[in-house]
UniProtKB/TrEMBL annotation:
PROSITE patterns: TIR. Residues 178-203 are annotated as: Disordered. One of its GO terms (biological process) is signal transduction. Pfam families: TIR_2. Residues 10-159 form the TIR domain. Residues 178-199 have a biased composition (Polar residues). Transmembrane segments: none annotated. This is TIR domain-containing protein. It comes from Melittangium boletus DSM 14713.
Amino acid sequence: MARATTKRIPNRSVFISHAASDAEFVNYFVDTLLTAGIGIGQEHIFNTSSPTSPIRAGSNFNPEIRSAIRMAKVVIAVVTPTYFDRPFAMAELGAAWASERLVPILVPPLDFNTLEGVLDGIQCIRVGDEKKLHELYDRFDADDLNKERWFNRNGSGTFNAKLREFLSGLPARLTKVSPSATAATSEGKSKAVSPTTADSQKKSAVPVKEEWATFERFLDELRTALEQLPWIVSWGFMYEACGDWGIARDQDTKDAAKDAEYRGLLRISKEFSLDPAENRWLYRPTKSSQRARNVYEIMDKLKSFLEKASRDFHLEYEQKHDHPAILSIYPFWDGHDLVGVDGEKTPQQSSESSSSE
């Protein structure tokens, strides 16, 4: 059976995270401010709502998007009320937050008082704040961000003219931003809750509890499935979920990787250097073993659950764990002790090793 191939997407320096339903507003922001104003060519912008997008609009949080976020120099999140209701947008936001290259653009009726979860405490730019938008322009100066000279920034006169044009057309464009029944508004968190909202919250309390129970069940299943494999294979699953390859540099890790490869559990790519101390092996799990296939199956179920989980679940999770509920970041794996300590076996794996000797 032929192995499925992944389409390679060209690296783009700016990633635009947004809800697909806000495409018209997002394209206005990108075309007027980023391209015509700052001078960033469309070929450098990853925007799924653009005609030049390398993938179709509304695409799920797939490996191509995860890789694009990881490779981007800047991730601009256009945060609207609808944004918080889109699981894939929230997954992008979590990945960008982990990369520490996130620039959130806050769109009315949202304001600083309504930010929760990942965005709570992060410096955001109000889309109508002229001074803050100038800071966005300054961020793209020819400093560390642009040291490779991947674009030529427009002069301040050009940017100021396009900024005035953008702000002039902003009120009309804001009417096109999709409303959301669940996102907070600029009235703030302290506003009294209406009876309708209160009833809705009461009704949603039980589903959130059920979501937590389902989440914990999937975590236990994943943890148990990973414990059935050698520790280095478990770490390989973590690296792959985070968009990386496992790296074996020291001899003990290479020996473990070689043994797992011999048993059909890992595939290894060897990189050699003129300096033997710099030699390293890159590794990832295979699907040859049923135990490995079990892990992939459970991971897919957990990913699907998290993509569909409610906003309330994700907010509670982030308040509790201080990171997004997505498998594509290392804090998720570390926080739930899914693979134990790097280079060490779990108690069950140690017991199995002792009994086999």
